[in-house]
Amino acid sequence: MNYTESSPLAGSTAIGFTPELASIVPVPSNETTCENWREIHHLVFHVANVFFAVGLIIPTTLQLHMILLRGMLAIGCSLYIVWATLYRCALDVMVWNAVFLSVNTLHLSYLLYKKRPVKIEKELNGIYRRLFEPLRVPPDLFRRLTGQFCMIQTLKKGQTYAIEDKTSVDDRLSILLKGKMKVSYRGHFLHNIYPCAFIDSPEFRSTQMHKGEKFQVTIVADDNCRFLCWSRERLTYFLESEPFLYEIFRYLIGKDITNKLYSLNDPTLNDKKAKKLEHQLSLCTQISMLEMRNSIASSSDSEDGLHQFLRGPSSVSSLHVPSPHQRASAKMKPIEEGVEDDDEVFEPVSPKTFKVHELP
């Protein structure tokens, strides 16, 4: 016996059939049409995109470029959140822009924190203004330099900072903050040390080549003195991690050695004269006072070498650095020195200044 079973799907289709289904025209999945454009979005949407555009076209040469960029992006994300919440009711757009807003806000906070005004201790402010600020050392870097592995020490009048042939030069490096110190060799006065000057810069330079040496001079406090003292070993490690500050120290120490050389040739050189000469000392930054002191020690068994050096005759011209007030020798042409400014020390040299002479 033949019979046909009715399908449940067919029955339901027949029951739920509506005439509207016949008018539906399927659209192929590989085709897209934009025949009916939607209305323009709310003004908040466009203002947000304007902030994004402004942030992206800020020139990188501007000093506050990153701060302005992050600020514009944060404002744009905030407006996107307002637009997605109030006018589109789009949860996904709101969530993503909330994430972008949090990231930009954190980055902006970090940049503003780095730009905060750094307060330098009043006692160290003079050193920063006179030595480090002209060389464009940031205040936060100077604070790191003076805040971790150094201390301020005091010497009363008559106390010794170093004794010749006894005190090791490997322990510390110091800058005088207040007072005055006298440097002598075998009881003979050599020169003074004034505030904002290194106390043992020649010894610091010498220890880069030789270890375990002793002071060859005696340094005594002529007044009640205060000085900033670094641990030599920890300072060396810190400068290795900061190449910019390492070059700054090389320049400052070389310049301080030059000042001391001028003081040796003119024992009457006082603090005011030293300040005037600061910008005129372009040579001798590589001269080691240790070699000079060794020469004095090797030729002054009867103290004749010391007196000859202090008199500055032509016999010791290899160690003699001419004073600005002395005349040049008739047989030698004087070396012309240009005025050296601290701001120009680290400026790149233009290639136009070099001339190549071809051999015939």
Automatic annotation (TrEMBL):
GO CC terms for this protein?
A: bicellular tight junction; lateral plasma membrane; sarcolemma
Topology in the lipid bilayer is annotated as: Multi-pass membrane protein
- Which subcellular locations apply to this protein? Cell junction, Tight junction; Lateral cell membrane; Membrane
Q: Where is the POPDC1-3 domain?
A: 41-266
Composition bias type Acidic residues, residue spans: 337-346
Compositional bias ranges of the Low complexity kind: 314-325
Q: Where is this region: Disordered?
A: 314-360
UniProtKB keywords: cAMP, cAMP-binding, Cell adhesion, Cell junction, Cell membrane, Developmental protein, Glycoprotein, Membrane, Nucleotide-binding, Tight junction, Transmembrane, Transmembrane helix
Tell me a GO biological process for this protein. skeletal muscle tissue development
Indicate the transmembrane segments per the record: 40-60, 67-87, 93-113
Q: Name one GO molecular function term.
A: cAMP binding
Query: What InterPro entries does the entry give?
Result: cNMP-bd_dom_sf, POPDC1-3, POPDC1-3_dom
What the record says about family reads: Belongs to the popeye family.
Q: What is this protein called?
A: Popeye domain-containing protein 1
